[in-house]
Structures are given as C-alpha cells and as structure tokens.
Amino acid sequence: MIRGAEQAFRCGVSIVGRATGTRELALLAPGQLVDRVDAILLAGGSAYGLDAAAGVMRWMEEHGRGFDVGTGVVPIVPAAVLFDLAPLGRFEARPSAEMGHEACERASEDVVEGSVGAGTGATVGKAAGAGRAMKGGLGCGAASAGALEVRAIAAVNALGDVRDDTGAIIAGARDASGAWMDSAAWLARGGAESARFETHVGRNTTLCVVTTNARLDVAALTALARAASAALYRRITPVATPFDGDVVFATAPMTGGVDAPLAQIEALAVRALESAIERGVRTRAPGDILE
Fold first, then answer.
1. 30 preceded by cis ω (within 30°)?
2. pLDDT > 80? residue 201
3. pLDDT tens column, 81-136
4. Residue 55, exposed/middle/buried by CB under 10 A (0-12, 13-18, 19+)?
5. Sign of the dihedral through C-alpha 270, 56, 60, 36
6. CA-to-CA distance for 22 and 57, rounded, in angstroms?
7. Could you tell me if 279 and 139 are in contact, meaning their C-beta atoms sit under 8 angstroms apart?
C-alpha cells in the first residue's frame, strides 16, 4: 500500500549493543531540526547492507515523501544492520539499493515472520561457534490496554541464547550431546578464552522497532526505546555484548494519538518486544543446528 507524505512519524532510538552498524541515528536525538522520519530500514549484510537505504530514499522521493526543502523532498531514513554474511549465506550476497526500493514496492501491513527480510540469515547461540548455533529470524509482537496499542518487530541474530517467559532456553548453543550449553554460564566459566569463541564473535546483532499509537514527543520516544530494551535482557542471554550491535527504535504518530502514562506505554512495549523476540526464533525456517 502506498501511503502519502502525511504518514511520516516521530522516532527515538536506544543503542544497546557495542558493535553497531547504523545510519542517520544522530538526527533522532531530542532537539534536532528535523523531528520526523519517513521510514526505518532493518537489513542484513553488515555495513554493506546500509546501501539499501538509498533505494528506500529513492522510493520515498518518487512518492513525494520526505522533509520538504522547497525544490523537493529529502526522505529521512534511519537504518541499522546486522551481520549475516556467514555462516548461512555467501559473503557477497548483500542487500542493495534495488532491494530497498523493491521492499517499499512490496510493503504490506501483513508482516511475514521467520527467516525472511532482515531475519533471512539470522542465527542465535554462537558463543561456541557456528556449528553449535541455531537459526534466528524475524518476529512480531503486540500488547494493548483499551485504546492504547504497542506493536513490535525484532530481527533476532544474537550471540546469546533466546529464552521464553519462564526463563527456559528455547534456541541457542548446544553441546556435543545436543543439550543447551547456556551461553551466559559458559562465558562466565571462561569459555571466552577459547580461540573458537574469538573466531565467531562478530556474527551477531538483534534489531528492534516498537511502535505505539500514543501521543509522544521525541524525548519520550527516546525514553520508550531505552525502556523497551529490557525485553532484550529478559529474553536473550547474554545480550549487549561487545560483539552485538543491538538497536531499539521507538515510533509514534506525528499528530494525534492516544493519551497514556509513559510508564504504561513502556510496560506494554516490553511485553510486545519480548513476544517478538520469542517469535523470531519460533517461526524460523526448519533446521536447528547449522552444519
């Protein structure tokens, strides 16, 4: 569905990991000149994947969406990427500007989950190497209270294991017998000293977006993104490592919206994002262990 220029939205961001690949995040800070965003790009391909944002911008310009500068529009497209160049795919297979443009053409409100989009090459539980890891993927979640709604999407590509709401591991690293290793416990015992760990640490990052129909300014959205990151800490262990580039975006309408306490919106955002993270591994393509 093609949407008009009025569909711009406000956006805040929280950088959780320490190995990020991003574009246009500085303008999301409170107090910047431009307080609108036209699209958010989540992509694989590591830093190469940022090229796809050019295609999104081209599509936006073709449809008159962007910051009006008099002689034309400049689409505002923050982006974040995850590393999936190995072990599932070919190193040279990366998102391009053409793919970004096509993604806009094919965009739908019916989001497909699993090993698609930014979740295509996602994996989880890589602390002990790719051979002990499992596939990750793209998941969605939702939470609401009356008229207040929060939706979330997560591309789950973590170094750590993913847990359900009881704390049980549901996807992650397995030992030689097929039992869960518990990556956080393994690292605490000194597993990070192994050469194998050092070889595989760079293949991670979970990217998230939470969106609400509440009336929020950029400062509140920045706080919302930070609060929503609690979902990562609850569902991924370990998370925000030196080898993960986790990023959480939070969005709200430019105009209108439901009035609600920020604390309530934050609580719903955590619930929605927890669900999205879990579904990111439950809806992945078949095949647990990566050969």
1. no
2. no
3. 999 987 666 788 899 999 999 999 999 888 899 999 999 999 999 888 888 889 99
4. buried
5. positive
6. 15
7. yes
Q: What is the mean pLDDT of the chain?
A: 91
Q: What is the DSSP string of 150-171?
A: EEEEEEE--SSEEE-TTS-EEE
Q: Residues with Cβ < 8 Å from 275, sequence gap 6 or more?
A: 139, 140, 141, 142, 143, 152
Average pLDDT over residues 244-251: 97
Sign of torsion over alpha carbons 9, 12, 15, 16: negative
Span between the terminal Cα atoms of the chain, in Å? 39
What is the dotted CATH code of the domain comprising 5-282? Answer: 3.60.70.12
Report the amino acid identity of residue 181.
M
- Of the candidates 68, 70, 76, 60, which has an alpha carbon nearest to the alpha carbon of residue 28? 76
**Per-residue pLDDT at 6 exceeds 60:** no
Please state at what angle helix 218-228 crosses helix 262-282, rounded to 10 degrees. Answer: 50
Coil, helix or strand for 118? helix
